[in-house]
Amino acid sequence: MTTNPHLLDRREAVKALLEDRSDLLVVSGLGSSSYDVFDAGENAANFYLWGAMGGAAMIGLGLALAQPKRPVAVITGDGEQLMGIGSLLTIAAKKPGNLAIIVLDNGHFGETGMQMSHSGLGSRLEVIAGGAGFHSVSDIADFEGIAALRRKLRNFDGPHFARIRVSTAHVARALPPRDGVFLKNRFRGHLGLPVN
Amino acid sequence: MADLATADDVTSRDWPLDIYKALKAAGVSQVCYVPDAGHSRLIQLSHGDSAINTTVLTTEEEGVALCAGAWLGGDRAVLLMQSSGVGNCVNMLSLLASCRLPFLTFVTMRGEWAEFNPWQIPMGKATRGALEIMGVTVLRLERPEDAEEVTSAAASLAFDSDQQIAVLISQRMIGRKKWTEAK
């Protein structure tokens, strides 16, 4: 498989997105997206998924509704979002201003052998999001676009949807903690919530 | 709500109101649902309450993930669905087991009592098993007068003891489906 040298490196894209993240809460979809978010800087305000494929955006919605004063970003891959494609309709209907769904789109199922995804086969996730009712939609292929998205994360005028076109080029391994109970308690502790 | 006195048209007791009151007492502030006729009263009460964030879903597994996110953010959430939706949730329930997340769902049963639609039978028969294989504790609500107590106990098991709880509301209690528009 060839890689397009003009596409963004996913690690650099996520690092740029999470620069000066301040009070941003982040949910990352299973697989490479969780590795990218971890590699950009370990943070108690990160909730890394290692499973629950298709659920990242909805976890983001529940969190955004519970924490309306905090910006929430879901950072996930095209395959993960495709499995929960209906959640784009649910989020657009609910219109949480503090939520952004950000899809790192390499057009492939990266964890399972780089099979082509529906996105790689021509489906346009940002068009689907627009049709679902997102009024703020971006299709990003450069760092200027990421800088603009970073500003949007703070405007509480969402929900925002962004597709970031990223390369399929190999990246170094970076594995976040896998213990779900630890991640839950750490995240809630960050918000000042008690452990049961 | 202006019309709290409206009686349910199947039983004389307004048991969805009892569930609603018990959920309020338990501090529930998010409700999500895939509609079911048996849940229509509770859905209406939820939408009418500005202190509850009510979310309509495209599929039930979205609700499992939404409830997980709500808890991460400090909210208590509840998922309302019909028994046919339980099968849609199975893999997403692993999220709750992996993170030991509280979970509370109310499932209106089909396919178990005076069912007229044979397509409802297979999932109705499998509902309890599908929940239990994923670690969810199943409670039954059989009598309208038990609604408040069962809801309160279920909420405590979920939110105080980190359990995943499904309350199955019996089809006998909901009543036979009526086809008023065609008669």
Give a short overview.
The complex is a heterodimer of chains A (about 200) and B (about 180). Chain A is α/β, with parallel strands linked by helices. In chain A, about 35% of the residues lie in helices and about 20% in strands.
Could you characterize the architecture of this molecule?
The complex is a heterodimer of chains A (196) and B (183). Chain A has 8 helices and 8 strands. Chain A has helices at residues 10-17, 32-39, 56-66, 78-83, 86-94, 125-132, 143-152, 180-190, and strands at 25-28, 46-48, 72-77, 99-105, 108-109, 115-116, 136-140, 160-165. In chain A, the strands form 2 sheets. Chain A has a 6-stranded parallel sheet with strand order 2-1-3-4-8-7, with helices on both faces. Chain B has 183 residues and is of the alpha/beta class. In chain B, helix 1 (15-25) packs across helix 2 (40-47). The model of chain B is unreliable at 1-9 (pLDDT under 50). Chains A and B meet through helix 3, helix 5 and helix 8 of A and strand 2, helix 3 and helix 4 of B.
